[in-house]
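Handout for the seminar on molecular recognition.
Each group receives one record of this type.
Step one: identify the two inputs.
Step two: read the structure output and locate the region that could contact flavin mononucleotide.
Step three: write two sentences on what you found, then compare them with the reference statements printed after the record.
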Amino acid sequence: MNTETKAQGRPQAIRVRDLMIDPPLLLAPMAGLTHSALRRIMIDFGEVGLLSTEMLSAKRLPTENPRISPYLIRAERENPLSYQLLTSTDKEMARAIDKLHTFKADAVDLNMGCPSTAVGRFGAGVVLMERPDEARRIVAEARRRTDLPLSAKIRLGSEADSGKLKDFCAMLEGEGIDMLSVHARFRQEPFARNPRWAYIAEIKERIKIPVVANGGIFSAEDAERCLNVSGADGLMLGRGAVIRPWLFAEIARGVFGRDIPAPAVSLPAMYAAFIEALEADYRAVYHLGRLKAFTHDFARNYKFGHSLACSVQSSRSMQEARERARAFFADNTEERIADSEDKAGDDENLVCCNGDS
Ligand SMILES: Cc1cc2nc3c(=O)[nH]c(=O)nc-3n(C[C@H](O)[C@H](O)[C@H](O)COP(=O)(O)O)c2cc1C
C-alpha cells in the first residue's frame, strides 16, 4: 500500500521510495511558468506536496548553468522538487540524470504527454505513447541511472482505447516507474474540453503504483469531484495553481481536512512579490516574457482581467508593464474578482494578446 490513509479513507499522502508527498498535491510542470519565482509564491501559501520544474531538454541540460539558467534557478527552500526531462531517446538519459543528481533533485519525471507539434517532430512528449518500445528503453535507462523517485507524465493517448492505454501504463510500471501522473485528455484535445477523469479509474484498476490525476482542477470543488471520479492517489494542479497560487492550501483545507487557516490573499501584493523575485534572481532578458506568461493566467482573478493581460502583454519594458499593472490595480478593487466559473473557462477571452510572450 503506497498511500497513507486517514480513518475516513481519503489518502493523506503519497510515499514514493524515501519521498513523502504530503499532502498529495503536486504542481504540474508548465513551460514558462513553473520556474523558481512562481514556485516560491506557491510555497509561501503552503501545502504543495511536490514542486516541479518545467520540461527540461535532456540533451541541453548537461551544458546549462544552474546559477543563471531560468529553468534551473532554485532557492534552498524549494523542496521537494521534481525535475521533468524531455527526450526522444535513452541515449541522453545518463548525462541528464547525472546532472540532476548534482542539483540534488528530489525526484525525476519523464515527459510523455506534451502534445506540441514542435516537440513531437523530434519524437518526444506524447508521441512516445505511440512508440512504446522507445518509451520502454527511456524508462529502463532512467531507472538504471537513478535511485530517486521516478515518475512519468502522460495524456490518455491518441484514441479512446483504454486497453492500449492500460498496457502502456503497465509497461511503465514494469520498467520501474514509481508514480504516474495522468493529464486526462487525449493527445489532440484542447484545454477547453472537459477532462476525462474516469479513465484514470480504469488505469488504477490495472497498476499498483500511485496514480495522480491532472487536468481541469481550479477549485476545491473540482478537486473533490476529481478524486471521487478518478479514485486517484493525488492531484496535480496546473493553470489553477498559476491563477491562484493558494489553491494547494485551499484544497488541503477543504478536501484533505488540514487544520490550517484560510489563505490570506492580496492580489496586488502577490503580483509585486512575483516581479521582485524575477528581478532579484533572473537576468533582465528573462523578466518580461515570464511576467507576461504569469499575467495571462493571474489576470483571470479579475472580472476585467483581459484588460490587465492585454496591457501587460503589449508592454515593451518591465517599467511599462509595472505601471500599467499598478493603474489596473488602482481601478479594480478585489471586490470585482471573477468567480471560479470564469477562471475555469478556456483561453478565448485572452486570445487577443497571446501573440508575443
Ligand atoms: C503554458 C503551459 C505549459 C505547459 N508545459 C508543460 C511541460 O513543460 N511539461 C508537461 O508535462 N506539461 C506541460 N503542460 C501541461 C500541464 O502540465 C497540465 O498537464 C495541463 O495544463 C492540464 O492541467 P491543468 O488543467 O491543471 O492546467 C503545460 C501547460 C501549459 C498551460
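Reference statements: The longest strand covers residues 51-57. The chain has two domains: 3-254, 267-353.
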